[in-house]
Amino acid sequence: MQISTRQSGKATIVDVSGDIDLYNSPEVRKVLLAALREERAPRVIVNLREVRYIDSSGVASLVEGLKVSRELGSRLVLLGLSQAVRDVLELSRLNKVFEVCDTEEQALRS
Amino acid sequence: MQISTRQSGKATIVDVSGDIDLYNSPEVRKVLLAALREERAPRVIVNLREVRYIDSSGVASLVEGLKVSRELGSRLVLLGLSQAVRDVLELSRLNKVFEVCDTEEQALRS
Amino acid sequence: MASEENEGLVLKLELHSDPELLCVVRGAVQQLAEVAGLPEAECRSVTLAVDEALTNIIRHAYQGQRGRPIQLSCRCLGPAAPGRPQAQLEFVLVDRGRGVDPAELRGRPLDEVRPGGLGTHFIREIMDEIEYERRGDCNWLRLVKYLTKQKSSETSGGG
Amino acid sequence: MASEENEGLVLKLELHSDPELLCVVRGAVQQLAEVAGLPEAECRSVTLAVDEALTNIIRHAYQGQRGRPIQLSCRCLGPAAPGRPQAQLEFVLVDRGRGVDPAELRGRPLDEVRPGGLGTHFIREIMDEIEYERRGDCNWLRLVKYLTKQKSSETSGGG
Ligand SMILES: Nc1ncnc2c1ncn2[C@@H]1O[C@H](COP(=O)(O)OP(=O)(O)O)[C@@H](O)[C@H]1O
Ligand SMILES: Nc1ncnc2c1ncn2[C@@H]1O[C@H](COP(=O)(O)OP(=O)(O)O)[C@@H](O)[C@H]1O
Question: Which of C23, C31, C71 is opposite residue D24, by nearest beta carbon?
Fold first, then answer.
């Protein structure tokens, strides 16, 4: 897995690629919480376009990001779900809980 | 692995995708020899664009096709080598032995 | 090398409880599911279920300790056998960690949005049979996926 | 589950001599090479070398018989050990097939264009150490790839 962060206006975009599993989901959690709590980004966009696999621990990291964003009054948006990621969110009954966008423009404007 | 055959003018194009290994290289050999010996195709183009892996038994099938094509006075052309396939042909010292084309038009005209 | 029942395709993996190895096991399971002829989406979900079972062993049975043994046996079984109505892909996971109250394995209701508690739910949704037993000082977990679809007529499950 | 030397990442596969399983082993080896931090092209070539060794066991040691046992042990070893100058990825293959004259394993000259005789050549070109022994009624083959490049700083070898 690779993870990196960039700014676009007031939004922070977190680009993730590869597999998110027990080995690296703590890193995803750390990066999301840093953007929300430390950088105080009003909008965090998690770009999952290049993610080919996510397990329950990866979903848990996203859920934790979502809860913290709600506490802080900021927003967490998921961008570019592959079929693999989509299926796992559906299995989790969380596909309705997250804000999901298909393009970066949408995610920035929504 | 998937393998199928189509005609383009007098040439026979063999499209292969997936992995070529000990399990399925006999099928590659069978299809190539049928096109050469039975169909008497004057030109057989082996489209390897979607081949992600080839082992020595796969290379052996291609070499056998090449030898038979020479015996019969027809031609065997390889099309669209991925880096993976290129590396294995190089390891085999066979990259100079095969006729290789990048596009279908080249392979048909060459 | 113990001789094994020579039925179906057999593959046994022995690994340590190191999270780095999860992707290695997924690489094998994904291919095995393809060889078994499962459609693409089901290859992915079966891989997920096995991965979640391993994750639980590492996190709960071994409480995060590394270097502890895990055994994963995979078999692809044809339909023609007494007591087995279905062609199936079977995974048996064995570890030497602490036991689990089977009630815990049931997972939690999903109506509350909170992290955690999804793994057992995934396994239950994906697999057709799940069996857990404490055997001596080992945990023994059997996961079965039915191969309802016909094996595809491709020459190979490719890589 | 025998307890094993707890050094480096360890993975052991036991499989039958069925060509369908080659892609399954490749799925695991490719990921392991990535976890070990090898660059992409070397992950592919190491996977090829292990696949060729298995292919030779199936074709030559077992003369094409299916259902016979093969063991593949993989270890990723760090540099700090006496008698081991290099971090390395080690594969040990064991089978119960017929023995081989080590001279045969050397392969043939490649100046002649003909099918066959490439597998041992690939293994020699790709691997840094190759060791073969007849041990009792088993063939024992050890293949080592040095990890000269630094392990990448990525969080994971991903799948
Ligand atoms: N292999 C196991 N060994 C021991 N306990 C387990 C095992 N698998 C699951 N459990 C128990 O079942 C509970 C639910 O597991 P799961 O649904 O995977 O969610 P999570 O792992 O996020 O808690 C775990 O919290 C744990 O108490
Ligand atoms: N595992 C093995 N057991 C027995 N003989 C082997 C084994 N591997 C290789 N050989 C011998 O070495 C020769 C060269 O092998 P290789 O280079 O892989 O080419 P090929 O398999 O196409 O003949 C084989 O023909 C065989 O005689």
Answer: C31
Is C104 touching ligand 1 by the criterion CB < 6 Å?
A: yes
Burial C59-77 (b: 16+ CB within 10 A, else e): bbbbeeeeebbbbbbbbbb
Q: What is the CATH number of the domain that holds A46?
A: 3.30.750.24
Q: Establish if D67 belongs to a structural domain.
A: yes
Q: Which of C100, C112, C141, C143 to mutate for ligand 1's pocket (most ligand atoms within 8 Å of CB)?
A: C100
For chain C, what is the domain count?
A: 1
Q: Quote the mean pLDDT of chain A.
A: 96
SS3 content of chain B, % helix, strand, coil (to 5): 40, 35, 25
For atom 3 of ligand 1, the residue with the nearest CA is C61
Q: Say how far apart CA A110 and CA C100 lie, in whole Å.
A: 45
Whether D1 maps to a domain, the answer reads no
For the stretch B19-30, pLDDT in tens is: 999 999 999 999
DSSP H or E run through A53:
strand A43-54
C17 located within any domain: yes
**Residue D104 CA, ligand 2 centroid: distance in Å:** 7
Residue C25, both tokens: 């096991």
> In angstroms, what separates the C-alpha of C119 from chain A's closest C-alpha?
6
Does C1 reside within a domain?
A: no
pLDDT (tens digit per residue) in A7-64: 999 999 999 999 999 999 999 999 999 999 999 999 999 999 999 999 999 999 999 9
Query: Among residues A78, A75, A110, which one has the least CA distance to residue A94?
Result: A78
- pLDDT mean over C128-138: 96
Contacts of B3 (CB under 8 A, 6+ apart): B14, B15, B16, B17, B24, B27, B28, B31, C155
Q: Given CB atoms, is C51 within the 8 Å cutoff of chain A?
A: yes
pLDDT digits (tens, 9 = 90+) for C61-97: 999 999 999 999 999 998 767 777 789 999 999 999 9
User: Does residue A25 belong to the interface with chain C, where contact is any CB pair within 8 Å?
Assistant: no
Question: Model's pTM, two decimal places?
Answer: 0.92
Distance from CA of D153 to the nearest CA of A (A): 9
**D 47-66 → C contacts, CB under 8 A:** none
Task: Tell me how far the alpha carbon of residue D128 lies from the centroid of ligand 2, in angstroms.
Answer: 19
Site of tokens 């080592």: D144
Cα–ligand 1 centroid distance for D32 (angstroms): 26
* Residue-averaged pLDDT of chain D: 87
**Mean per-residue pLDDT, A66-95:** 96
Pairwise pLDDT comparison (D111 vs A106), residue with the higher score? A106
Distance CA(D132)–CA(D143), nearest Å, equals: 9
Ligand number nearest CA of A60 is 1
